[in-house]
Amino acid sequence: MDATNPETRVFAFQYDIAWQDKSTNFDRVDQMVNRAVPPKGSLLVLPEMFATGFSMDVAAVGETAHGRTAEFLSTLARKWACFVVGGVVSRSDANLGSNDAVVFAPDGCRVLTYRKMHPFSYGGETEHFAVGQDLAVFDWQGLKVCPLVCYDLRFPEVFRTAVIRGAEVFAVIANWPRARQGHWETLLRARAIENQAYVIGVNRVGRDPSVAYRGGSVVIDPRGEVLAEATTEAVTLSSVIDQTALQAYRNRFPALKDIHRDWVHG
Length: 266
Known about the structure:
Blueprint (H helix, E strand, L loop, with lengths): L8 E6 L7 H15 L6 E3 L12 H4 L6 H13 L2 E9 L5 E8 L5 E6 L22 E3 L2 E7 L6 H9 L4 E5 L7 H15 L2 E5 L2 E3 L4 E3 L3 E3 L5 E4 L5 E6 L2 H10 L14
């Protein structure tokens, strides 16, 4: 795939999420995307719980599969003929919420829903949100993309399993706190290097009623080199994802062939 092909471009949207205010957040995303003017077929990535902030109030912010936030993402994908990844709070069947990464295709149809496999127990998330049971991978312009959510980043076995299933790009959406910003930066690079994969990390800025956020959204290549990086301001990152270069690097330095597959759930 030609690295100059606009259909391989990713856009990461970092902004201050208005607390439990979906309409305001929809407007902020719309404005950022309108300014970015993404080419058809691009991959647009929004933070975890992009419409509400990291809220534990499932009754207030949770939705059905066809709720307002899903409809917004579907419309966004269809308007720009792009793939869209965003974090949504869904209502599960066990009187708990579901912290999901959902993906919509350029025709506005839902491609997949990934439920966060590692709710943040330290922050009380496990008391309000169900635990996801499996990974999900989707096709984007000939590439295999795996969406993951925030605290999942601390569990390398999840990334390794996804690579065995063919993942070449990871989209990690987050509300990662400023207090552990160094971990965010280090772990994203580590996941890219050890899996010889592109990693797109999308965080928020600003603060909610309890926590401050420093941003630091980033696009990292399979060698661990930073292709695009945000600081502490609201910003849109853009970078090309080059499948040809990825495969060439994996072939030239075939470390993934030495995985002990019997140690990893594939």
